[in-house]
Amino acid sequence: MEDAEQYAQWMNDIDVTINLLAVPNIYSLEKEREALIKLSKEGYNFAIVTLNNNEVIGNCSLGGVNPIHRTAEAGIFIRNKNYWNKGYGTEAMKLLLDYDFNVLNLNNIMLRGYSFNKRVIKSYKKCGLKEIGRRREAVIIGSKKYDHIYGHIGK
């Protein structure tokens, strides 16, 4: 909760929220606090922090966990632009996948991204992403159309 103000600032930055398709929304500090409270009570949601100064730079999560079929869906988001393209997202995803496969004993993790978000696709591929499909031209930003990419990483 102590990072709610920082999260609210990020959620009102178009460069950050375009990757979530959350651009049209306005996020007040109260709305962000409510979102953080909700996230803390459900699923597996983690802050991504730097080791050297414990600065929060983003978050990652695991949802839709099915212990019978041993599947789930993972997501990651580096919100602090100062840490983009420096390997933090890939490292955080690798840590999350290690937790998923070796602690939760899951077998198959689904990942999604948008074709315009080259950083996340590159990061997911470094972690072992295998593309399983695309929803063609499912996202329209301005006059351009982009694919919604689906993939998975298996144990």
Automatic annotation (TrEMBL):
The keyword Iron does not apply. Gene3D superfamilies: 3.40.630.30. Signal peptide: none annotated. GO terms for molecular function: acyltransferase activity, transferring groups other than amino-acyl groups. Residues 1-147 form the N-acetyltransferase domain. InterPro entries: Acyl_CoA_acyltransferase, GNAT_dom. Keywords: Transferase. This is Protein N-acetyltransferase, RimJ/RimL family.
